[in-house]
Amino acid sequence: MSGVLSRVRAEYLLPFACAAGAVCVGASELMSTFEFDLGPGGGAVRTIEAADRHSYALLVLAVFALAALAVAVIAGSRPAAVAVAVTGGLALLFFLVVDLPDVGQQGTLDEPSAVFFSTEAKPGDGFWLELVGSVALAASGGALATLRPEQLRALWRRPKGEREARDTEPEPRERVGGHRERRRTRGAERSDSHQR
After folding, report:
1. Which of 76, 104, 131, 140 could form a disulfide with 149 if both were Cys (CB 3.0 to 4.6 A apart)?
2. Closest Cα to residue 16, out of 154, 139, 140?
3. In sequence order, which ranges of the chain are alpha helices (DSSP H)?
């Protein structure tokens, strides 16, 4: 029974994990992906924004993932759940192909030949947020895509059904108890009649 409950709870967490991953991917597009420390003395810091590198592609993927997630959970659409997983996979692939190879690159990322002293590209906040969000969206989206349509619909409608089930659970017990009491009273009446 506890295993079933833990599995149900894990399924309930999937939409929240997908939504959190999509929000992280979208937010990373509004932050800096890399930072350059110009010169050994600390000098000015140059940052490269994610939007300049990606042209807001990750933000579009994040919005699409949230829309597909809503359709998957509300309508019980498995293709929409698969779309969430595919979006997460694309975001992760984007990170691995576009951003990860540029870590530690010398000079500016758009002009590798222009070297500023011994400077190198250091990951910014947007880089790490993109990593966390893309991995979370790909993993949770993949798990969401394995659910059947009725399981997807249950993520949206089941809490109300569970409350109704809890409200109706005591009734059968009361009925069983009532039947037992009636049998006892009938037995007592029969024993009294025999004694008379």
Report:
1. 76
2. 140
3. 2-28, 50-54, 57-75, 78-94, 125-145, 149-168, 170-195
Distance (Å, whole) CA 123 – CA 131: 11
How many residues belong to the chain? 196
Question: How far from the centroid of its chain's Cα atoms is residue 47's Cα?
Answer: 30
Tokens (6 digits) for 89: 């996979």
Fold of 2-147: Butyryl-CoA Dehydrogenase, subunit A; domain 3 (1.20.140)
- Tens digit of each residue's pLDDT (9 = 90 or more) over 18-77: 999 999 999 999 998 888 765 555 544 678 889 888 899 999 999 999 999 999 999 999
Report yes or no: 81 and 34 within 8 Å, Cβ to Cβ: no
Residue 53 near residue 33 (C-beta atoms within 8 A): yes
Q: Give residue limits of the domains in the chain.
A: 2-147, 159-196
Tokens 């969000």 belong to: 133
What is the pairing mode between strands 122-123 and 45-49? unpaired
Q: What is the rounded distance in angstroms from the CA atom of residue 63 to the CA atom of residue 147?
A: 22
